[in-house]
Amino acid sequence: MKKYAEITGWGKCLPPAVMSNDDLATFLDTSDEWIRTRTGIEERRVSAVGTSKLATVAGRNALAAAGLDASELDLILVGTCTPDELIPNVASAVQRDLGSKYAAAFDLNAACSSFLYGMHYATQAIRTGVHKKVLIIGAERLTRILDWTQRESAVLFGDGAGAMVLEASDTESGLLASHVTCDADARDVLALKFGMSFDRFGFDGIMPFNFVGQEIFKRAVKGMNTAVEKVFAETGLTTADIDSLIPHQANKRLIDYLAKMCKVPEEKTVINIQKYGNTSSATLPIAFCEAVEQGIVKPGDTIVSAVFGGGLTCGAGIIKWGQRVTPIRPNDEVLESTGESALDLILPLHEQTKLAWEKRGNE
Ligand code: ACO
């Protein structure tokens, strides 16, 4: 039995349409200054295609980096809270479109923590010999579910996907320790009340997004703190052993706090929230992919990661990178532009939701 689940492939997919903070300020009562100083975000991507398409491109790039054929995979696991449909899942569309016909395929929803949750369980499955070659993807099209009249939450999120290939290995590598939790007492502070609980006959176009930013912030700090302490204790490593920090990208201030706690200097902390906003389950694999591409992650590096999301789920992991930081085949496939700008895609949603709120207010 192989003891480790080495990361052998990495890939990403960012839709081409970019929405800047100034674009948002054309239809929301907000400003570039407010968004930058409170969150660190400068722009985000808006997808014209569904989550499964984003997931497939990211997945194909990760397979290319690993030098694997899609038919060699035995599991495809997609972390998402924005599936194209309730049934069937996103993972089955990825399986079909990649041609991985021997792979089991399922989705996992732990909100923004989904990717680390996925790594946690996929690593266990590889260690026990149940699976050998696993593709994990984090993919989201959050811009379709946001309430574009609600400035508190609308400015924070974006679309994208990232992926990793994990393979059974005898070399010490991959997720060395991980800890995942859920602070369910606070499950309502970040909630989209939709899905099976909504009254489809009374649906008026509004998907209420409960979002209590400061409470999420407070609990996220506490949860990540505990999870990081646990993974250090489990491995016996200390902050002195860490080469870089690759955290969930929800707020730059939160990332700065984590970096201080883990004693990781700024140049070793991976931050890309300014370009993409919060892409939920996709932030972690996109950040890993860019950290490798930019030479921040070096062969054999030890990395600490921490995440939190709706639930409130939370987690941390210590990851050892393998000896290879260059892709075996080019992993740079991108999505073609449809010609639509980010505002072309979002303004109709904003208009519909605004009218629905006005109608509700008048009744
Ligand atoms: N533009 C301008 N003003 C705004 C905006 C906006 N987009 N949003 C809120 N404001 C106003 C508020 O109305 C408030 O005005 P008031 O003082 O007149 O009442 C003021 O700005 C301050 O609002 P706060 O909510 O106190 O702002 P805060 O500094 O807490 O920042 C934020 C809000 C960025 C959401 C922060 O709480 C946060 O980062 N929370 C945790 C991270 C998070 O929730 N990320 C989202 C995803 S969760 C996940 O990843 C699963």
Automatic annotation (TrEMBL):
Compartments, record wording: Cytoplasm
InterPro entries given in the database record: ACP_syn_III_C (IPR013747), ACP_syn_III_N (IPR013751), FabH (IPR004655), Thiolase-like (IPR016039)
Keyword field: Acyltransferase, Cytoplasm, Fatty acid biosynthesis, Fatty acid metabolism, Lipid biosynthesis, Lipid metabolism, Multifunctional enzyme, Transferase
One GO CC term on file: cytoplasm
Enzyme Commission designation: 2.3.1.180
Pathway: Lipid metabolism; fatty acid biosynthesis
A Pfam family it matches: ACP_syn_III_C
Active site per the UniProt annotation: 112, 248, 278
GO biological process terms held by the UniProt record: fatty acid biosynthetic process
Reaction catalysis annotation: malonyl-[ACP] + acetyl-CoA + H(+) = 3-oxobutanoyl-[ACP] + CO2 + CoA
Domain comment as written in the entry: The last Arg residue of the ACP-binding site is essential for the weak association between ACP/AcpP and FabH.
The protein, known as: Beta-ketoacyl-[acyl-carrier-protein] synthase III
Gene name linked to the record: fabH2
